Recover the amino acids of this structure.
């Protein structure tokens, strides 16, 4: 077996080197397929991350929605009476209100569309800062910005920001001070700014009917449990003790985000079709290769080369060409990624990229299965034209 592999390896590498221009062309095709697959995977990760980033980083287990809101945050409305009831449920360690809205951050060049998130300082929903301090009170004119906002605006702790929202029929401007910066916390593909809940209610966009209302309404309530293993039990208790609410785990909440599941399915399908095209391209090339060297394979078999040697030579050849192509594609992807602006939602996740590369390394042997089978079935005499 070892002798067969050694001979097969020699034959495979020797042919690749003698015809390096032809095989390099195939490797470049594989490199382009690799580039496309990695960018589709990174785009899927970036878009998904931009949608779910804040929710996925919550230090809690459950989100509580208004009943019949179908786990849609924007469709849910909950008041403080529900918050008090939820905090009394056995097994609930903490609960905090979360309000969501969109606004414009006024900048010298052009306004930046942001998500403004109203949270209760010291309770669930407030992200931990990596620079500066946490919010002080629920009425303070303070904000925490996420790293995406800081990167795109160059704002730092201690500076003031101006947020513009539409209330009724008028544009209103609110000046707030940055007291902290947190890590990436995008919400609905927008950079995030966190406000004390009552300040958020004052700042958020309002209809004409809401302008004079003074009863803050949240979208959802974030719940942390004493024992995360008791999720289902606490869900049942909340459903039984709190009227007109429904609950969801963070995973369920992420899947319910508008467009999230459809977006990920579409991008995964595109990646799958790209891999399938790669299999066809590699399979077609190596099938043509085998057809062009039928006589040479016939000579090899005539002088004593066995079918395992011929098969392994083809397999090693395919693997070498695929590895070279994937390596070139990976390097090109890394080089291009250095020049993408932060506004492009592309994130190279280590696990996702590794799985994509592993799949790409498999498409070579898969694509070459037909050509390998054909090579082993070549009859020496027929290949040399010595038999009718």
């Amino acid at each position: 077996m070892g002798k067969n592999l050694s001979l097969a390896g020699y034959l495979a590498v020797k042919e690749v080197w003698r015809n390096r221009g032809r095989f390099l062309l195939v490797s470049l095709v594989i490199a382009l397929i690799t580039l496309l697959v990695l960018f589709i995977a990174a785009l899927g990760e970036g878009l998904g991350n931009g949608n779910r980033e804040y929710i996925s980083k919550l230090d809690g287990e459950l989100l509580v929605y208004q009943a019949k809101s179908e786990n849609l945050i924007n469709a849910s409305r909950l008041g403080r009476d529900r918050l008090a009831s939820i905090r009394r449920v056995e097994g609930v360690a903490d609960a905090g209100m979360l309000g969501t809205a969109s606004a414009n951050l006024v900048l010298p060049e052009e306004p930046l569309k942001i998500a403004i998130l109203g949270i209760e300082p010291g309770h669930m929903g407030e992200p931990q800062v990596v620079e500066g301090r946490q919010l002080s009170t629920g009425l303070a004119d303070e904000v925490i910005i996420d790293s995406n906002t800081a990167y795109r605006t160059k704002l730092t702790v201690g500076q003031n920001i101006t947020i513009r929202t539409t209330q009724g029929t008028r544009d209103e401007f609110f000046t707030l001070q940055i007291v902290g910066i947190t890590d990436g916390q995008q919400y609905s593909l927008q950079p995030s700014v966190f406000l004390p809940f009552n300040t958020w209610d004052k700042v958020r966009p309002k209809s004409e009917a809401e302008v004079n209302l003074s009863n803050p309404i949240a979208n959802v309530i974030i719940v942390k449990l004493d024992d995360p293993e008791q999720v289902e039990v606490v869900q049942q208790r909340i459903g039984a003790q709190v009227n007109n609410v429904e609950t969801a785990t963070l995973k369920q909440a992420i899947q319910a985000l508008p467009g999230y599941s459809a977006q990920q399915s579409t991008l995964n399908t595109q990646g799958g079709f790209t891999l399938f095209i790669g299999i066809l391209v590699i399979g077609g090339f190596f099938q043509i290769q085998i057809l062009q060297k039928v006589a040479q394979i016939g000579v090899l078999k005539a002088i004593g080369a066995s079918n395992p040697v011929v098969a392994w030579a083809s397999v090693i050849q395919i693997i070498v060409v695929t590895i070279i192509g994937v390596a070139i594609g990976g390097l090109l992807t890394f080089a291009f990624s250095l020049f993408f602006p932060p506004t492009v939602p592309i994130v190279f996740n280590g696990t996702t990229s590794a799985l994509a590369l592993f799949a790409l390394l498999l498409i070579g042997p898969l694509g070459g299965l037909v050509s390998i089978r054909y090579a082993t079935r070549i009859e020496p005499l027929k290949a040399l034209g010595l038999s009718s």
User: Anything to note?
Assistant: The radius of gyration is 30 Å. The first strand starts at residue 62 and ends at 66. Strands lie at 62-66, 92-106, 112-119, 129-132, 142-146, 160-167, 170-182, 192-196, 220-225, 245-249. The chain has a mean pLDDT of 84.
